[in-house]
Amino acid sequence: MSDRGTPGKASSSEDEYFVREDAEKKRRLALQAKREKDAAQLKELKDLHWMHCPKCGMEMHEVRYRGMDVDVCFSCNGIFLDQTELQHLENTKPQGVVSAILNWFKPETQKPV
């Protein structure tokens, strides 16, 4: 027999509604906690690795080269370029060794410099 309409006693469909609402609320809270944790972990990783050489792990410094800032490691003499810096070098039509190095990064379908 249905308990719908009985004073002081909730119906089963009403109970299901509140169970679903409670589960949804817990799911949202869990997702929010996950996002906060992920953001905190990403910040921690960035703080740990930001401007450190991927080759030797020492601190890198920005140096001005051809009108842009490139990342240089004075420990292992590594020079590291971001995507925009590499594109900037491609657009300046370099000659010699720089041209040869940039050819390594071009897709096979493009003409060499």
Overall geometry: elongated
- Low-pLDDT windows of residues: none
Main sheet record: 3 strands, antiparallel
* Percent of residues in helices: 40-55%
Task: Explain the layout of strands and helices.
Blueprint: H1 12-49, E1 61-65, E2 68-72, E3 79-80, H2 83-91, H3 97-104
Could you walk me through the main structural features you see in this protein, from its secondary elements to its overall organization?
By secondary structure, this protein is mainly alpha-helical. The protein folds into two domains: 7-50; 61-104. The chain contains three helices and three strands. A hairpin with a 2-residue loop joins β1 and β2. It starts with 11 loop residues before the first helix and ends in a 9-residue tail after the last helix.
Name the descriptors.
single chain; 113 residues; mainly alpha; 2 domains; 3-stranded antiparallel sheet; 3 helices; 49% helix
Please provide a brief summary of the model.
With 113 residues, the chain is mainly α. The protein has helices spanning 12-49, 83-91, 97-104; strands at residues 61-65, 68-72, 79-80. The chain folds into two domains: 7-50; 61-104.
